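Q: Structure tokens for this one, please.
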Amino acid sequence: MIDIRRPYGKGVYMSRVINIHHEPDKGSRLPDIRVEEPLTLVIFGGTGDLTRRKLLPALYALSTEKRMPEGYRIVGCGRRDYTSESYREEMLGEIKRFRRVEGSDADLKAFVARIDYFKGELDDPEAYERLNKTLGDKKTYPANRLYYLSTSPEFFQPVIGHLKKSKLIYSAGDPDKWSRVVIEKPFGRDLESALGLNREVLRLLNESQVYRIDHYLGKETVQNILSFRFANTIFEPLFNNRFVDHIQVTASETVGMESGRGAYFDQAGSLRDMMQNHLTQLLCLVTMEPPSGLASDAVRNEKVKVLQSIRVPKLDDVAKNTVRAQYAAGQVNGNRVSAYVNEDRVPGDTRTETYVAAKFFIDNWRWSGVPVLLRTGKRMAKKQTSITVQFKKPPMRLFRTVACSDDICDLTETQPNVLTFRIQPDEGISLHFATKRPSMHMVVEDSELDFGYADNYRGTLPEAYERLLMDVMRGDATLFTRSDEVDAAWRIMDPILQGWKERDASIPLHFYAPGSWGPLAADQLFQNETGHWRNE
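A: Here is the predicted structure, written as tokens:
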């Protein structure tokens, strides 16, 4: 279903809905995608929040949808005093709480029966020897091994080192069995630490064994950016500096430092937590060149080329092209909200940013001169992740444009065409374009062509972790970040962190009201550009 909406008269909206149905030919059904090889999945951090909220519910969904292999086993590793029985009982309740797929009681019990618990310290070599002995029971634990590092970043290298030393990691060329390691973000705190971590990880593992996960890349709507661009000839020719004025990428959140998150976040900040990884990946997908195919390296090669083409900020440009801010105290929906510095486990004198906006330029043939603006923040007006492509205005103003707000209409400037990818929530794609307003006058108005996932597909979209876990179990690295991607992204962001540190006195830390769209100072990024932040 495609919904075309436009204002008609004062305060009245007419809607034309086009239903599009496709009946596939018999025998043309796509083959089911499932994991074929049996495996043992070991989760370090098996008692943590990510395991409870995301990993086990995602694996349960894959199992219920018959995407898991006939033989698989899950081992949760942690320091707490669980037995396998008590761990299963607690995780059963967590899966019920966070699951996307309902399934039957029998399905849930059968899934939980495949989970075991292993107690051990992450930095204890003896624990890995015991783990190796436990997993050596080939009747219970399949030989293929997937290790998921849902741990604090400081444990990434030590855990991999212990796995390697204890012979829990196979050779990358072993024809009979495989071992893979999934590493959660953040991957480094700056360029130096990222280079060092990559160097240590690749000393112990082959790149083909490393899966650096960014859950944004598992979202259905993020993957749809590629299909929208490269499966439609009417749009891709417009994605260049001849037609595009600028691109905006926004990831705003309404939450603050709930659940004691302040201790982690204050060490990271919005640039490390969101911009260096999630927003940079979205930037790559909307600006990359067409890949030679959909194989993992073909896609990742093009993303790296974009990152290598982004102009590295100079120290003197950091103040001009970046804005950092913290949320102040205030009220949201009638409720009192503390300032960031007064949040639990946050130092009172911290200058860590809860909001950051930045302007970048891609110095290549396609995008030369087109600004790309990124912003992300906590305690903002709306939870939203979106990419907006604003096209240039027509070279001649042939028509007058009318705009209406409620029952008041007035003539205004020509509005540019705007294409928006709504990543979350209200997932979909919309296009704003001009149509003649029904009247005796030759005037145009802004109309919207809107595609919504909820209107076109039944059920909920697959969770990002479902897709990513299935891909790593199948050995498909397309949606995972390669080491040179990580390094290239840090080469762009590191100068901003250095600029804030070295020029702290001259680069202000702004403040914004909770429930707003951030500091007014962020508007300065449009000082030499056409347009404004689109707060929709």
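A few notes: The two ends are 22 Å apart (CA to CA). The domain at 39-184 is CATH 3.40.50.720 (Rossmann fold).
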